[in-house]
Design brief:
mainly beta; 7-stranded mixed beta sheet; 7 strands
Length: 119
């Protein structure tokens, strides 16, 4: 079954990270067998700024970082009503997102030609 995402929708993306020290917002922290590294995940609260026809979403963080994610990614889900209420400041875009030329786009419109990091 295909998941439906819309422009402006608030979504949560869970990122798996491996590092020598966990981040302050780390969840599910597990140490390596010899204690050298940690494996954990962080939840990113992002907004959908474009839905591409090939099953990809362009999401934007509150700091304006844009990424293309697969709509079928199991680590991507809709934000629940209480997450939208409690973490509403994390979904806001602090600097407005811009395209490559530097034009600011109104919220909810697609960004064409934006520089993205593909995951």
């Amino acid at each position: 079954m295909r998941r439906q995402f819309e422009l402006g929708m608030m979504v949560v993306h869970r990122s798996q990270i491996h590092s020598t020290s966990p981040a302050p917002n780390a969840k599910g922290v597990y140490a390596a067998p010899h204690g050298d590294d940690y494996s954990y995940y962080v939840e990113e609260y992002v907004k959908v700024v474009a839905v591409l026809p090939e099953g990809k979403l362009i999401v934007c963080t509150r700091y304006g970082t844009q990424r293309a994610l697969c709509a079928e990614d199991p680590m991507l889900r809709r934000a629940t009503w209480w997450e939208r209420l409690l973490f509403r400041k994390l979904f806001k875009l602090f600097p407005p997102y811009t395209d490559i030329i530097g034009h600011t786009q109104p919220e909810g419109e697609t960004i064409e030609g934006a520089a993205l990091s593909i995951q």
